[in-house]
Design a protein that fits this description.
Chain lengths: 150, 91, 150, 91
């Protein structure tokens, strides 16, 4: 039931423990963690810079989370997105969805990621091992993934 | 608004739009006749080659009015903040 | 790439870190955690006993995991299932699926849970707060969930 | 096998089948004519009321031969371990 934009890393177990506390109705917890890959289309990636639109980011993330909670019976949910300079292997994004049964938790977590990828104002710039940098282009696959929820 | 009252707006640029325009934001007074997001893009492109280049491929430029996603046909209305950016790539 | 049956609890972050190590191709990690709920159909649950069929359990879990890996391009996967005496709020099962992109990780984690629920020889016995105990009945919803992968 | 050679198998029971039968396992010598899992269930039910009750609702009894799920029509063949249990409820 919260969204955060932060520079710091996150810990999945610690975030889960804080989120679910002692809610005895929760039987299913799905987490998604997105990481900086060391390769993209064959290029060696040394670093990734995450830029965002402060103010709009939080509003969009909260709207996406509210939409998920209106569609599925969630006991708890969380979206954390990092910004700033990241390197290969670093965590980028965390989504947690907790529900009584697993179907709602799985679907809500997938929905949160699909909408986050296509609506939340974040942009990635890759720096390769050779020092070149370029803005990551959006993937048609992400648009297609988001469309299945309409 | 819009039709009969020029107003000052802040325009913000993100990612490669920011790099191509060469600035993060600017305050502009909207001239009469600039009613929609698309009108504003057309007007900006008259202001210099960096804008021409930044908006050369309109299909990869997205906009927000007061931090809400909008289409190019959206009326600027009383918006105080207009943002331009590429398709998002977070997550 | 492993399955375990154990009495001890597990830690999601620690299991994830061990599993993915420094695999730089991994961009997406989905985890599922199943917990003992404090209520079931309105009954207050005090404890849950997990019985299994030693030998067959491990064979079935390994077969389910192998099936997932043949269907999706996974960089890593893990299934841990607890047995013995558990109480409300305790973890029961952990599934992790890691891949380059998120779709494979989400689908594989969902598949692993659906198949685990309908094929792995585990049985739950609930003890209510008033001391009554009863074997949990299988849910038609679990059979239906497993069928969608055929 | 089966048809012309009786052989000894271990039968294992789990969950409420174990409770109803009153034991975890037993070794039995399969008599001639007991060819399939369903045959074995029928034969067991002649051995006492606890077996009758355990197998009273065949639709909620599952079986495995040498730790592999099988249907009631499966031939026992050379299986050394036959297990009976309710539909699984793990996860």
């Amino acid at each position: 039931m919260s969204v955060r934009v932060q520079r710091e890393d996150f810990d999945v177990s610690a975030e889960t423990a804080k989120l679910i506390a002692d809610d005895a109705d929760i039987g299913a917890i799905v987490t998604f963690t997105g990481r900086v890959r060391g390769k993209d289309d064959g290029r060696q990636i040394a670093a990734l810079t995450l830029e965002h639109y402060p103010g709009m980011t939080e509003v969009e993330m909260a709207a996406i989370e509210a939409e998920a909670r209106s569609r599925w019976p969630l006991q708890a949910s969380l979206v954390v997105h990092r910004v700033g300079e990241l390197k290969a292997g670093d965590n980028i994004v965390l989504v947690i969805a907790a529900s009584v049964h697993r179907q709602a938790a799985f679907e809500a977590a997938g929905f949160l990621m699909d909408y986050l990828k296509t609506r939340a104002p974040f942009w990635k710039k890759e720096t390769t091992a050779s020092g070149d940098s370029a803005w990551v282009e959006s993937r048609d696959a992400d648009e297609d993934a988001a469309k299945r929820w309409r | 608004m819009g039709e009969n009252a020029a107003h000052t707006v802040q325009i913000r640029y993100f990612a490669w739009l920011r790099e191509k325009v060469g600035r993060e934001s600017e305050d502009v007074e909207l001239p009469a006749g600039v009613e929609t997001v698309a009108d504003l893009v057309g007007w900006l492109q008259q202001r210099g080659p960096q804008y021409v280049e930044a908006f050369a491929r309109p299909q990869v430029v997205r906009a927000a009015l007061d931090k809400v996603h909008v289409k190019p046909t959206a009326a600027l209305g009383a918006a105080r903040e207009i943002a331009f950016f590429p398709p998002v790539t977070g997550g």
